[in-house]
Each structure stands twice: as structure tokens, then as C-alpha cells.
Amino acid sequence: MENYKEGYEIYRQACENYGLESMTYYLYLKYLTEEQLHAYDAHSKKNYLDAR
Q: 3-state DSSP call for residue 33?
């Protein structure tokens, strides 16, 4: 779940940089696609294994 928060912060910052209103964290998670969720999971697992 930590990677989702990190991704949300990047999204939120990008919206702020372009003067756009960002959606809530709940909506951000709700509208992630299966592909995006799998990519976050794969990234998270890789970071976990690299840290070991």
C-alpha cells in the first residue's frame, strides 16, 4: 500500500505543477487499472527483494 501512496503523491504533485485539481486518494485508487496495480505490485516486490 505504501507504493500506492507514493504514486498518489507523484500524481498530486504533477496536478499541482499544472494547476489542476487532484482527485482524492480513494478515487485515485478506485480508478487505477489492473495493469497499473500489477505494475505497482511488481515494483514493490522488486524493491523488497533488492533490499534483502
A: coil
What is the residue type of 8? Y
4-51 confidence digits (pLDDT tens): 888 899 999 999 999 999 999 999 988 888 888 788 778 777 776 787
C-alpha separations of 16 from 9, 11, 23, 25, 30 in Å: 10, 9, 11, 15, 20
The whole domain housing 33 covers 2-38
Q: Report DSSP state, residue 24.
A: P
pTM value > 0.85 = no
Q: How far apart are CA 28 and CA 45, in angstroms?
A: 21
In a 3-state reduction of DSSP, which class is residue 34?
Answer: helix
Give domain status of residue 50, yes or no: no
